Amino acid sequence: MDPLSRLIKLVRPQASLDLRCLLGGAFSIQHEQEAEGVVPFHLVLSGTCVIKTKGSKPLILEAGDFVLYPNGGAHLVRDNLGGSMPIKSTLEDDGDFLPLRSNGKGAINADLLCGRFLCERGSAALLFGTLPDPLHISLARSHPLLALQTLVALIRDEADSKNSGALAIVTSLSQALLVMALRIYGEHQSDVPNILTLLTDSRLSASIQALMIAPGHQWTIAELGARAAMSRATYARHFKAKAGMTVLEFLSHVRMATASALLLHTKRNAGDIGMEVGYQSEAAFGKAFRINTGFTPGRYRQQLQENVAANQK
Fold it and tell me: Considering the entire predicted model, what is its pTM?
């Protein structure tokens, strides 16, 4: 399994679609800061719009553009005509598909699919913690062009059709869209330190694979460097330049993501899980887990069970 696929399998980001926006004329929609583990996104199905984020230049989006907010950053979606007034819109229940937001019956200037990817605390930081907020991928101008255009076209066609299973299909395609966008970013932004440039670095690939397969091993930088045919110092320097974090920080994130998944999907006790991910005592694991997630392992598992029960009602 390649490093990106392994990371996606470990973190398990789940696509959740919120609504579809069909907007014309002047509009301005404010999105507030999201909670930890909530990663909002917008996909432009057709037309154009502008997204403004504090501290960043406005992004002019076109059909096929995908914008992701890895840290859930607050942002403003508006028309590209300079509109500044809050949108006067209606939010309609679209039956078996998505709620529909519109602001009139005139020409549609922007058709947006809006949603979020949900990750559990303890795993979100591994995938999203070092990425820019926002992360903008122009899918229509990326390579391979045909595959990306086909994916976006399928999403648009299913959203338009509202046929049986359309919501499930669009949700699954959004999941694929995330992985494709992350891959493109990692391949084309190799000079920007983040998790994706780390995973696509051919010199580090073997050592990253080994670390992710066996996070409980007592890895040393010298041992990992040997797998990359580098000295200890060269490996540590090259790793941080690519990842935007140290080797030990990355290892800690992998351990926490693995532990989070085990707490969620197994009934094993915290001591066993801690040992599997590399901690020599339950106390040491509990302390590290609490620092990383804000919860003890027991409270974390209990909260997850409560969330599952609430969602089943």
Answer: 0.84
